Amino acid sequence: MKITQFFTITIMSVMTVSTINAQQKLNPEIEKKIDVLMSKMTLEEKVGQMNQYNGFWDVTGPAPVGGTSEQKYENIKKGLVGSMLTVRGVKEVKAVQKIAVEQTRLGIPLIIGFDVIHGYKTLSPIPLAEAASWDLKAIEKSAETAASEAAASGINWTFGPMMDVSKDARWGRVMEGAGEDSYLGSKVAVARVKGFQGDNTFKSPLRIAATAKHFAAYGFVESALEYNASEVSNNTLFNQVLPPFKAAVDTGLKTVMTSFNTINGIPASGDKYLLRDVLKNKWGFNGFVISDWASIREMIPWGFSKDEKAAAISAVEAGTDMDMEGGIYVPYLIDLVKQGKVKQEFVDDAVRRILRVKYELGLFDNPYRFLDEKREKEVIGSKANREAVLDMAKKSIVLLKNDTNLLPLKKSGQKIVLLGYLAESKNSPLGSWRIAADSNTAVSVLEGMQQYKGNSLNYVKGLELTTVEPTFLTEVQYNTTDKSGFEAAKNAAKDADVVVMVLGEHGFSTGEARSRTNLDLPGLQQEFLEEIYKVNPNIVLVLNNGRPLTISWAAEKIPTIVEAWQLGTETGNAVAQVLYGDYNPSGKLPMSFPRNIGQVPISYNHYSTGRFTNKDNNVFWSHYSDVEKTPLYPFGYGLSYTTFEYSNLKINKKTFSKGGKVEVSVDLKNTGKVTGKEVAQLYIHDEFASVAKPVKELKGFEMVELKAGETKTITFTLTDAELGFYNNQNEFVVEPGSFKVMVGGNSDATLSDKFEVN
Ligand code: NOJ
Question: Does residue 182 lie within any of the structural domains?
């Protein structure tokens, strides 16, 4: 490339970033109403719209700054509050909404936010588990169910979905996302936004505004340590971190939440480039940006803002429109604008965006439209919602190993022994984000299995998991000393036909501020497993966890392993139906399972390096000296009670031009004895490009149900969207060259062929 060419491209790319490219359409009628309303608003009332307070009882972060309930009520009356979070229930929401609507000068309604992450009261599986279903319709339905219950409770805005791509299982928040892959993550993000927001008209009072969080790169925090720094290249940022957010914006997403981390040195809430240039200008996002809890204030300890005033200036200029529990905008922004230190236009832009979402939600037409006590009673915990979360729970289970066909269990004549605290727990399966759900309301695995009466079932706890039952606000204390239950468990297990052991993490071991440096089965569970194995190796290990764990010993010795995550309210029913074969598992891992902690972060879409294989048979190649570099279980992996065979891979043409379509077909046969579902996955490798490309990248998947012996031909279509990437000038390009296509049932897919793009 000539030097002159280089400069042209660089300048063009800068221009591209600042170009307004409105993809979200504006409604001119709403815009006119906003003009009229804003012309009546004082500066104080405008800044008030940019302020969000926490509610009165659930706290999801450090000490709230909004003061006592009385002070908060006073500020609502003064028009100094635009939103509340974590106020819930029709009665409570009505109480605050009435003040905003009936006692403030302009009667602007509040928007009511809440962390509806995997359900409201009726809980779905944790989001990582849902992603393991790869079933986008089911995931959309799950978000719709969650939205319906939250909306019926007076909430009109959820702080979800979380769409942080992460390859680091040490990070506790991987349970909230869709795993390690940006393509799967984008599809899941879109499904969730659609589930929450419906068709974006909000004609139904059971749909709520969604939030894409955490913007951005929170899944790449250094050392997987919470609230830490992320140092990510533009290559990683544009090709891996941002695509789910972009896909959500293109779906009509209403709000975005900033992250707690810095991105290459800039705290996310003060990142003008990402918020204003990329999100708002380049992507044309018309909704509003909310800070994470106190993250504007936290720019001070980060050493980025010297004081509260500086934090206010950076955040508002960057494009953080609403301050969640930071107590920064109301006290400082008004004077800063009056003194000419912040341009009025930044405040006006923020307020316009916030009012726009309130109009779109129909809150100005009827501020009480989400507040119907009859509907609240009918919708929350309804039979239909229980059925929806049960369906989702079954689809989220991943069968990791079934070497001796212990599963499915026989329906009669078997002596089954069930072990482990997690088998009886009605609390841990509810997972971490379940603020509105009552504790101990999950169906336990024990209860689920008790419904199958043909076998003898003997439950022995054998091991306490924790020393005290944890909560959302406490650290989990695992039992590391008390083995007193081992003997009883061994005695029960030794004569059983099958021993089902439910082991893993407590539901509160993942989520915010739950990073771990060790991914083994916590506490004494590994020892417990090995002791039982000595007396009876016929073990079905049912894992309950919110992240990949290091289970190399179990993977080698234990014949049967079922990944059952934390599956929410219907956990026990879902697990029992899978164990007894009434549901044939079809889940596939959304994150690689490492062999040991030293491999983490790990993902299937790593780079080839210059020395990928050991072709010279010497030590100088890319490897670990002590363990295979491959994961224990790869991304996309999962078995079924039947087996599948892929064959006959065909590509419709060998040479393609940009803008064309590549059709890749493959025959998939059910070679086993029962009906089953398989997620066929397509990966590509761009063999030569202007930046080094990952060894493979997921670019298509399809779930197919096949009867025993049945074959179907699946066709995947690849377009510029799948073949292109962001180059090192952050431009989306499709470059000519050779592409390898790989198809199979997981990321180790081996059936392959090639085509050229010219
Ligand atoms: C902090 C979390 O990071 C965020 O995800 C959540 O929505 C807020 N707290 C509100 O609870």
Answer: yes
Beta partners for residue 716, in sequence order: 664
For the chain, report the end-to-end CA distance as a whole number of angstroms.
18
Closest residue CA from atom 11 of ligand 1: 60
552: in domain: yes
User: How far does residue 209's CA lie from ligand 1's centre (Å)?
Assistant: 16
End-of-domain residue from the set 599, 628, 659:
599
- The Cα–Cα gap between 686 and 656 comes to 14
Residue 22 in any domain: the answer is: no
Vertex 643 angle, CA 639 and 646, to 5° = 105
Same domain as 397, residue 364: no
Can you list the residues of the chain whose pLDDT is less than 50?
1-22
Structure confidence by residue, pLDDT tens digits, 368-409: 999 999 999 999 999 999 999 999 999 999 999 999 999 999
Residues 314 and 282 in one domain: yes
Q: Ligand 1 centroid to 326 CA: how many Å?
A: 13
Measured in Å, residue 160 CA sits from the centre of ligand 1 at: 9
Residue 56 has what pLDDT?
77
307 shares a domain with 263: yes
For the domain that residue 364 is a member of, what is the CATH number?
3.20.20.300
Ligand 1, atom 7, lies closest to the CA of 159
Does residue 578 sit in the same domain as residue 540?
Answer: yes
How far, in Å, is the centroid of ligand 1 from the Cα of 138?
25
On whether both 434 and 303 belong to a single domain, the answer is no
Question: How far is Cα 282 from Cα 250, in angstroms, rounded to an integer?
Answer: 12
Do 213 and 163 touch, CB atoms closer than 8 A? yes
Q: Is 472 in the pocket of ligand 1 (CB under 6 A)?
A: no
The pLDDT of residue 142: 98
Q: Domain count of the chain?
A: 3
Token look-up 């490897």 returns: 623
Tell me the per-residue pLDDT of 227-273, one tens digit each, with 9 for 90 and over.
Answer: 999 999 999 999 999 999 999 999 999 999 999 999 999 999 999 99
| Residue 351 and residue 446 in one domain | no
The answer to whether the CB of 60 is under 6 A from ligand 1 is yes
Show which residues are catalytic: 292
Here the CATH number for the domain that contains residue 679 is 2.60.40.10
Task: Please give the distance, rounded to the nearest whole angstrom, from the Cα atom of residue 375 to the centre of ligand 1.
Answer: 27
pLDDT of residue 5: 32
pTM of structure: 0.96
Q: Is the CB of 633 under 6 A from ligand 1?
A: no
Domain that holds residue 218: 3-12+29-376
Determine, yes or no, domain membership for 473: yes
Longest distance between any two alpha carbons in the chain, whole Å: 82
Say yes or no: CB of residue 292 within 6 Å of ligand 1.
yes
Residue nearest to atom 4 of ligand 1 (CA): 292
260, 293, 432, 434, best to mutate for ligand 1 pocket (most atoms within 8 Å of CB): 293
Residue 215 near ligand 1, beta carbon < 6 Å: no
**Ligand 1 pocket residue status of 53, Cβ below 6 Å:** no
Claim to verify: residue 569 and residue 438 sit in the same structural domain = yes
Strand, coil or helix: 186: helix
Q: What Å distances lie between residue 475 and 84, 171, 181, 260, 663, CA to CA? A: 27, 15, 29, 20, 51
CA of 513 to the centre of ligand 1 (A): 11
Asked whether the beta carbons of 498 and 414 are under 8 A apart, the reply is yes
Q: Is 153 in the pocket of ligand 1 (CB under 6 A)?
A: no
- φ/ψ of 711, rounded to 5, equals -125, 140
- Clarify whether residues 444 and 343 are in a common domain: no
Q: What CATH number is associated with residue 418?
A: 3.40.50.1700
Q: Which atom of ligand 1 is nearest to the CA of 259?
A: 3
Looking at residue 66, its pLDDT comes to 77
344, 376, 408: which is the final residue of a domain? 376
Question: Does ligand 1 come within 6 angstroms of the Cβ of 293?
Answer: yes
The ligand 1 atom nearest the CA atom of 211: 7
**Residue 718: C-alpha distances to residues 181, 665, 739 (Å):** 18, 11, 11
